[in-house]
From TrEMBL:
Residues 25-82 form the CBS domain. Signal peptide: none annotated. This is CBS domain-containing protein. Gene3D superfamilies: CBS-domain.
Length: 162
């Protein structure tokens, strides 16, 4: 009986005061890339930091999410259309190869773990969730990222609500 009461109290506390995603994930600096940077710069970040998603900004405004999948599609086009790689191509050009589901949602710094989990989960069978949740001060496109949440973070997010 005591265990049931404790579970109910824990659920109540979770609903009243859910954990904040940014506090649960405690990140280092968010790696991002400028839309006008050369793709070689983005590739260096991917390699150095072992990341698969990079937020792209232009004049301080969020433009999209550069993924390793988009880079692979761009690379395939480069090798067939141009007989080689154009390492000086701008990131904005490579970003055009992102698929519609390779997207990010921007949220404010007080976004809860529950909300992030909802965003990273498919909304219906066969639907694609967002690839990343980018957390900024108040969730505006013109703000610099404070954190980025991706599928790799799901175990830590779930652990924070258990």
């Amino acid at each position: 009986m005591d265990e049931v009461v404790l579970d109910i109290e824990r659920m109540r506390d979770l609903l009243i005061s859910p954990p904040i995603a940014l506090q649960v994930l405690k990140r280092d600096q968010v790696r991002k890339v400028d839309a006008r940077s050369q793709i070689a710069d983005a590739l260096a970040l991917v390699k150095e930091h072992d990341i698969s998603q990079l937020p792209v900004y232009d004049d301080g405004s969020f433009q999209g999410l550069l993924t390793t999948n988009a880079i692979a599609r761009w690379l395939a086009t480069q090798s067939t259309d141009h007989a080689g790689l154009a390492e000086t191509a701008p990131v904005s050009e490579v970003l055009k190869f992102a698929e519609p589901h390779e997207s990010a949602r921007l949220c404010g710094r007080h976004t809860t773990v529950l909300h992030v989990l909802d965003l990273l989960a498919p909304s219906s069978p066969g639907a694609h969730p967002v690839t990343a949740v980018i957390i900024s001060h108040s969730g505006k496109f013109t703000e610099q990222p404070l954190g980025i949440v991706v599928a790799q973070d799901l175990p830590r997010l779930y652990a924070s609500i258990r």
